[in-house]
Structures are given as structure tokens and as C-alpha cells.
Amino acid sequence: MTNWEDLHRRCMACQRCALADTRTNVVFEAGHRDAEVMFVGEGPGENEDLQGEPFVGRGGQLLDEMLSLIGLDRKKNFYITNIVKCRPPKNRDPLNTEQDACIGYLEEQIDLVRPKIMVCLGRIAAMRLIKPDFKITKEHGQWFQLDDGIWRTAIYHPAALLRDPDKRPDTFADLRAIRAKIREVCTRTY
Ligand code: SF4
């Protein structure tokens, strides 16, 4: 049975894919390990790689600001990580081979956190965690429940919201739906 100490130790020393050669830090997690709500992005960017924490650059600040509007605070009531734990060079999408090498860590994190709600940040995470043909422009904000019973949805990645502010109203609507789902299925978040 996985435990946090063992999982963290294995992940921090990981050499399973070529991203190990170019990373500064393995970016394992932020937030609360006993949270009911889990956010998952695709991989660390430059600031995350330098600081060893997910979503700490401009996109991360925007995400934290948006989540604060629905009462979510990484210091209090959500957990956040990525599909791959090491930064892809020049912020390219993580390759399928890199995702395949790394996904086991995320699966162990999900087993340990046992969230009630999982929110994918962007297309790559949604294709991995909801369905391979997920279309973020059409299917953001929709809810899916797979065999494990976790409620899953996806919103635009914060980097996409920085590039295209016209997407923000859709995301605020999605966040209101997430708040409603939290009220429906979570007991400790609010
Ligand atoms: S991205 Fe994942 S699999 Fe690849 S070296 Fe980093 S921790 Fe290991």
C-alpha cells in the first residue's frame, strides 16, 4: 500500500523519462493532502520548475484569484498537482511517452487523497483523466463520473486564460458550477 513518504521519495528521485535531465526540481504537489477537491494540470512551467511548486507563475496567480472567488484556497481546502512532475523544455506539451512514464505517481496521489471532485486544468489533463477525445472548447464545465465515482470536470488552463481573456466568462460559469458541485457532494470543503 502506498504511503505519502514513500511516494514522495520515489518521485523526487525519479529518472523514468528524459525530463529528468532538464528539470531543476521535481514538482510534486501543493495544497492539502486530505482535500475533497483536486486540481490537475499538465506539467510544470518555468517558475514551477524553479520553485518546486505547481501553479506559482502568472497563471498560478490567476488561478488562485479565481478559486478564491468560490472559497477555495490552496492553504486550506484543495490539492493540486500535474500529469507530469518535471518541466517539459520550452513549455511544450508533455509527450505521451512522458505522460505514460509519470502517470503512476498521479494515480497513487489520487488513491491517497481520494478526492470527491477532480478538476482538470486544460485539454491535456482532461484527455488523460476524463476521455482521450476530450474537446476543451466544447466540453469544459461538463461533468463526468467514471468507475471510481470521482466527479470530474475540466476548465481552461490558466495560461489559456492569460492568452485569451475572452475565455474568462466561460470559466467563471464553470467555477460557479464547481462551487455548486462541492456543496452537493463534499462535506468538509466549505
Ligand atoms: S516527468 Fe515524471 S516520470 Fe519523468 S522523470 Fe519526472 S517524475 Fe519521473
Write structural notes for this entry.
This protein has one domain: Uracil-DNA Glycosylase, subunit E. β5 and β6 form a beta hairpin. With 190 residues, it is of the alpha/beta class. The protein has a 6-stranded mixed β-sheet with strand order 1-3-2-4-6-5, sandwiched between helices. It contains 8 helices and 6 strands. The two termini are 30 Å apart. It is globular and about 40 Å long. The relative contact order is 0.18. The chain binds iron/sulfur cluster. The site of iron/sulfur cluster has 14 residues, from α4.
SSE string: HEEHHEHEHHEEHH
The distinct bound ligands, ions and cofactors come out as: iron/sulfur cluster
Largest sheet: 6 strands, mixed
What's the tally of helices?
8
What's the helix and strand layout?
Blueprint: H1 4-12, E1 30-31, E2 37-41, H2 46-51, H3 58-69, E3 79-82, H4 96-113, E4 117-121, H5 123-129, H6 136-139, E5 144-145, E6 151-155, H7 158-163, H8 168-185
Parallel strand pairs: 2-3, 2-4, 4-6
Antiparallel strand pairs: 1-3, 5-6
The protein binds iron/sulfur cluster.
Primary descriptors:
single chain, 190 residues, alpha/beta, 6-stranded mixed β-sheet, binds iron/sulfur cluster
In short:
The protein is α/β, with parallel strands linked by helices. The chain contains 8 helices and 6 strands.
